[in-house]
Design brief:
The protein is of the alpha+beta class. Helix content is 35%, strand content 27%. It folds into two domains: 3-146 and 294-299, no CATH class; 152-284, Gcn5-related N-acetyltransferase (GNAT) (Aminopeptidase, 3-Layer(aba) Sandwich).
């Protein structure tokens, strides 16, 4: 046994879904992305997935080998997983450095090209070391992230000027513009189709607009609800509108709406290099869960 991979979301969830849901907060990204693909994605073609198609995988221990995991699973139980979607780093669940190193060899053998990795720090570097041995790419830190979970929501006092409303199809052009601006500002590759991203969010009411004096000044998104959990993001305010608390207003609005809809875990990620957003979300009642490291891959630099 060891690493198994598939391009079929349903197969992946059938094998790894129980493992993912056991720690749904830490596995929020894989759960929400696979749910969107399950709802909207085309059925996979017969045969192995194309090299630019999503790829998913799970790890089972070999006979007689214990699986390093938080919950000490049984011998045949899935105890780690990964997700690779076009335009994004390969995303790893909690796993040992050795499991991450084995995964790097597994993906290198598949012929996949990776732009980076998103994992816990030790696993990220273990993966990067083996990836360099196989492919030759070097790795550098792209972002350090922190996952937060809402405790008790604490709206800002005084409240910012304005009110929230759900985005509608009439806002599509604005959403495309602002989602694209957000991607550029945070330093992610601008490869995603923002029109498709806006349409996906609009399809389930996943974007809220904060308006002041009747004009949009900020947006906050949420993922689909999966296993009682939603994740807030992106939150974006154009530079000319910053400093008025609009992002806080939009974040509180989507957080409260998720609570009212019955969500039990409201989550979000921050960039640890941005002290403003980290402080804001903690003032609103979000509490740290775990940190992750995003490494970007590229040609190794010569001394």
């Amino acid at each position: 046994m060891g690493w198994f991979s598939t391009g079929a979301v349903d197969h992946f969830l059938a094998e790894a879904g129980e493992f993912l849901r056991a720690e749904r907060v830490r596995n929020t990204v894989i759960l929400t992305v696979t749910e969107s693909l399950r709802v909207n994605g085309p059925a996979p073609a017969d045969g192995p997935p194309a090299r630019d198609a999503p790829l998913f995988g799970y790890w089972r221990p070999a006979p007689g080998r214990s699986a390093p995991s938080r919950s000490a699973p049984s011998q045949n139980q899935v105890s780690a997983a990964f997700m690779l979607t076009p335009g994004f780093p390969v995303l790893l669940t909690h796993m040992s450095p050795q499991m991450a190193a084995d995964l790097a060899s597994h993906l290198a053998a598949s012929g996949r090209l990776l732009q980076g990795i998103n994992a816990e720090e030790e696993a990220a570097w273990a993966f990067a070391d083996v990836w360099r041995q196989h492919i030759g790419d070097g790795a550098e830190v792209h972002r350090r992230m922190r996952l937060f979970r809402l405790g008790t929501l604490m709206p800002p006092q005084p409240a910012p000027e304005g009110t929230s409303r759900p985005a509608t199809p009439d806002d599509r052009a604005l959403l495309i513009d602002w989602l694209g601006a957000f991607v550029i500002e945070v330093g992610d590759p601008p490869t995603q189709d923002q029109g498709a991203a806006a349409d996906e969010r609009l399809s389930y009411g996943g974007i809220t607009i904060w308006e002041a004096d009747g004009a949009p000044v900020s947006i906050a998104g949420v993922t689909r609800t999966v296993a009682g959990m939603v994740r807030v993001g992106p939150v974006y305010t154009p530079p000319a509108q910053r400093g008025h608390g609009y992002a806080a207003g939009a974040t509180v609005a989507v957080s409260q709406a998720a609570l009212d809809a019955g969500a039990t875990d409201i989550l979000l990620y921050t960039d640890l290099a941005n002290p403003t957003s980290n402080a804001l979300y903690q003032r609103l009642g979000y509490r740290p869960v775990e940190d992750r490291l995003v490494l970007s891959f590229g040609p190794a630099k010569t001394p």
